[in-house]
Structure formats: structure tokens, C-alpha cells
């Protein structure tokens, strides 16, 4: 069924299509009641023209429907047009005459074919199925009608709820009662209802425009009165709804602000209560610094757990601070002081707790560094003590110097570590004194810190004593090693003296072979030999002194030497060999000097001394010394151990021997001449004697 358009009396047209299936009279009656409730009383007063389309139904159903109209809308019905099928019902069936029942029914009923319905109703008010030109979509109309009714119902209910909510809010604000707030959530979403209303209003306005202008080239239709009346009704509802919704939004904003403020107050107090309660209590129980690296690491791990718990509350603080800042930037004057007070209280507590956490972390970090430095120093002292307690068996002086250098480096490193320990300990002590004034709210922190302070002092004093003991041992070891350096140096120099003495002996035997060609040269060689012997004597004495020093150093070091044992015999052996050789050289030079002196005395000739006679003993002395010297040149030097050694080689001694022989030959010739001269003198004396007699 549907109501659309108007008849020639401006009454509404009600169309009731009947189908071949059984029609439920109850449903039809309910549908008619619904449709008849739509038009206004003014429209209904103009009456209805009812079209009962019975082309697809049976006569008894049509009859029942017509009679039912008498009970539903007898006063409003002006005309009932029953559209009969092309094949008319049986006359027996249709013997019932509606016109005769007009008085009883209260309206006129006519039977008419569909193509002749235009006699009673204008074609523009009829759809094409009744031969008209009206464009009509019943489903579209029904959907729009349902939307309108739904909007009306929801908007009316929403208006009532919003009005109650807004009025209650006014009373709540007047009473300053913020503790008991009723539920302010309406049954329908205002935004959705407003959107539905705007869409419905737009559709109604569009239909009205199309109805007045026409569209699509078809016959225009006039909107129904209910559609025309729906527009201002929708507009009025929308206006009222917007007004109440605006107030409702303000109410929600105010309540949201109050709720947010109360929530912030609750969270602030939760944060403050936890930080000042369990959080502070956790810090109160953590005051130690540990007595080792492991203990300090355990305390740091425990502190990290405490920091982790605090971090969760600090995150809540950051969030709350942002929320409070947002409320302050857009808050009312009455809330500003309260918000600022909450913000200040929260900030004070959080910053104070964060400072305590940071201070505790710094103390633990300093304690960890102190224990690490103490452990490192202890290990260095242990290593140094191990070096000092180990036996020293260096191979040479260079090894001793290297060991001394390593020892000094170790000691310097220990001194640096001890200085670092003092500095870190002082930093920790300063923090301990600050902690005493900081106190975490405790009255007996100074008593608890006394253990930490005593521990720090004890560690530093213990390390100082250990370092002092090591320094004393280093001094002893340094002296011992310096003595060992001196010992090695003496042994090395003694060996060098032996080598030098050996070289002097070798030089004496191999290069000191000349005896001089005259007495003057021989005297020079004698002087050089004495100096050479003095050098050898100094070398021997130097070696002896060095070896004596090694004996004293070995006694001081309580050790036996490795080289002085055979160095002294070597030195003495070489010195004896040198002494024998130098004595032999001395004797040869002295014999050569005597030989040359005697020979030169004989061979010294001058015109005045041409006839000077020489004693026979002088000639014999030259001959004897010369032969002895020549014999001595062929004899080797015999050392105390029985070994023999010649001066130079036979070829080296040949020039000296030849020079001696030449001089002996000259002396012999001089002797021969002297003997001839003496014989002549004797002969002359014999001749002179007889004449005188």
C-alpha cells in the first residue's frame, strides 16, 4: 500500500495492490493504520480516494478489503475505485452491489477497468500501471520514510537526553558537586544522528526541487504533503539538536577536563607516594660501597634494578607533565593554580629522587673505580714482590741493566697506581661526606658511612705499607744489582788486562828485536824498554786490583765468580812470562850497549890519536862480549813452565847479528894494525939499542 499524489478534490490517493496469494487482513490493517498516521489532519480532512487493485486477486478478498475500509477509515474515504481484471468476476460473485451499500459503508465504491481509471483521477497522478504518467518508486519512498522516522525518533530521544544532561550539569555546577556525576553518554551518537538528519534534509530538498522543476523528460510529480512538512520538521530538529549538542559538547569538555584533572591528581599522588615511600626506602637500604670489585658490581646491579623501577614512574611523570602543560596552555583561571601546584609538587619530588639516584650511581661508580684501581695496584705489588723474591742470575751486565730498568718501570707504575688510588679514594671520601649531608632522610647515615670511610682509609694505608716494603726491597735489590754490574765490569776489565798483557808480551817477542847499531841507539832502546815494562807493570797491577775487587764483591754478594778463578792464574802466568822476556830483553840490550861502548872506544879514531895504543884487555872484552851477545841471540827465552819462545824469527835477528860481526871485524882489524905497529916499534927499538951501545 502507499499514499501518493492527490485526486481532483486535492484528497490523497491510497493505493492497495492485491496479489494472487492469500492476503493477511491483520497485516493490511496494520499497514493502513501506519499509512493513515502519516498525513496531517488537514490533509485527511479532504478525504481519501482509495484504489483497490484487484486484478490479481479474488473477489472475496477485494470485498473483504473494501468492507475493512469501513472499519479503518470510514469517515476519511470519499471514493473507492476497485480495479477489476480484464476478465470480470462472475456476476454471481459480484452480485453484491457496493452502491447500494453506500449509506452503510459511508463511501462510494465503483468497479472500473485500469484504462478507465483516468476518468476519476488525473493521469499525472497515476502510475503507468494504471495508465498514468507519474514516475514513482515506492521502495525509495519507503526507505526515505523509514529514514525520516528513524531520524525523528532518534533525534527526539537524543534531544530529551541532551536536555536532561545539560540541565543536570547546570545544577551540578551550581551546587559545586563534582563528586557524583551521572552517566552523560546518550543512547545515540549525536554525530551520527546529525549526519543522518543532514542527509535526509538534503534528499528532501532535492526531491522538492525536482518536483517543482521536473526532470528526466517525464511528467513531473508534486511532493506529498508529508514530504513538504518533513523538511521544516527536520530542520527544526536539526537546529535544536545542534544547539543541545553544542551545550553537550561543552558539558563533556568540562567534565572531561574535571575527569582529566582528577585523574592527573590521582596519578600525581601515586607517583609522589611511591617515590617518597617505597622508592625512598629502597635508597635508604643501599648505602654500602662493597669491599671488592665483585661486591661493588653486585651493588651496581641492584642499583640498576632500583633505577629500572624508578624509570617506570619517571615515565609516568613525563607523561603527566605533558598533560599538565597542555591543560595549563588551555586551562581556565580557576584550574591554573591547582595545576601549577600539582606540577610543582610532582617536579620537586621527581627531581629530588632523580638527584638521589644519580648521586648513588656516582658513588657506586667511584667505588667501582676505587676497587679496580686497588686490585690493579695489588696485582702490580704482587708482581713486583715476585720479581724481588726471585733469585737474580743475570748473564752479563747488559742483562742486569735491563732488569734494573724493568724494576724501575715496575716501581714507577706502582707509584702511579698508588697516586691514582689516593685520588679516587679522596673523591669517594668527598662523596661520602656529601652523602652524610644528603642522608636520604636518615639520621644515622654518618654511622653507616663510617664503615665505608674506614674501609677506604684501610685500603689506602695497606697499599702504602706494601708499596713501602717493596721500595725497601727494591733499594736492596738495586744495590745488589749495581754490585753485580760492578762485579761484571771488574771481571770484564780484568780479562781485558790479561788480553792487554798478552798483547804486550807478544809485541815484546815479535817486535822488540833490534839491539841498535851503536851505543846511542842502544841507550834509546833501553829507555823505551823500561817504559814498555812500566806499561806492562801498570797493566798487571790494574788486573790484580780488579781481581781483588771481584773477590770483595763476591763476598758481599755471597756468590762465586765465573771468570776470576782462571783469570788470576792466567794473569800471573803471563806476567811471569813477560818478566822473563823483559829481563832477557834487558840483558841483551845491556850487553849490546856494553859491546858498542867498548867497540866504539877502540874504533874511535882521530888524526891526533892515530898512534894511540889500546890495551889488549879492551880487545878481549869486545871479543868476549860480542861472542856472548851473538850466542845469546840464538838462545830462546825459557818460561817458568818450561816452554820456549824466540825473539822474532831467525831472519828478524840476522841484521842485529850481522851488525855485531861487522863491528867485531873492525875491532879485529884495528887490533891487527895495532899489533903490527907494536911489532914495528919493537923492531925499531932493537935497531936503535945496538947503535947506542
TrEMBL record:
Chain ranges of the CRAL-TRIO domain: 15-138
Superkingdom: Eukaryota
InterPro entries: CRAL-TRIO_dom, Spectrin/alpha-actinin, Spectrin_SESTD1
SMART domains per the UniProt record, alphabetical: SPEC
Domain SESTD1-like spectrin repeats region: 365-475
Record region (Disordered): 169-189
One Pfam family matching this protein: Spectrin_SESTD1
Similarity remark: Belongs to the SOLO family.
Name by which UniProt lists this protein: SEC14 and spectrin domains 1
Gene: LOC109100848
